[in-house]
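User: I've been trying to design a sequence by hand for this structure and keep getting stuck. Would you show me what you'd pick, starting by listing the structure so we're on the same page?

Assistant: Good idea, let's start from the same input. This is the structure you sent:
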C-alpha cells in the first residue's frame, strides 16, 4: 500500500527555507509562498516533496518512522508559530 505524508498545509515549512531555496528579501520565507500556499505546487522543488525525499533518501527506513519523525519536526514549527492545533500532523 502506497503511503503519503498527510501535510496540513500550515505553510510553516515554507517560512524556514533559507539556505535551501530562494527567499523573499529580509526573510527566511520561500519566494513562491503566496497567501500561505505554494504558487508553484505542481512544479515545487524536490526538497518540498516529503514523499519523494522518503523514496529517494530514506527508503531503508520504515515509512512509519520517517513519517513520525517528519511530523514531529512539522509540529515543532506549528507550535512555535502559535498556530491552531488543527494544523498538527498526526502520527501513523
Amino acid at each position: 500500500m502506497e503511503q503519503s505524508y498527510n501535510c496540513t498545509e500550515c505553510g510553516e515549512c515554507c517560512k524556514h527555507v533559507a539556505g535551501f531555496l530562494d527567499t523573499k528579501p529580509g526573510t527566511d520565507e520561500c519566494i513562491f509562498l503566496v497567501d500561505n500556499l505554494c504558487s508553484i505546487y505542481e512544479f515545487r522543488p524536490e526538497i518540498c516533496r516529503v514523499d519523494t525525499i522518503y523514496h529517494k533518501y530514506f527508503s531503508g527506513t520504515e515509512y512509519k518512522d520517517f513519517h513520525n519523525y517528519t511530523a514531529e519536526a512539522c509540529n515543532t514549527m506549528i507550535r512555535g508559530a502559535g498556530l491552531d492545533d488543527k494544523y498538527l500532523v498526526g502520527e501513523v
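That's my pick for every position. To get oriented when you compare it with your attempt: Residues 27 and 78 are 18 Å apart (CA to CA). The longest strand covers residues 33-34.
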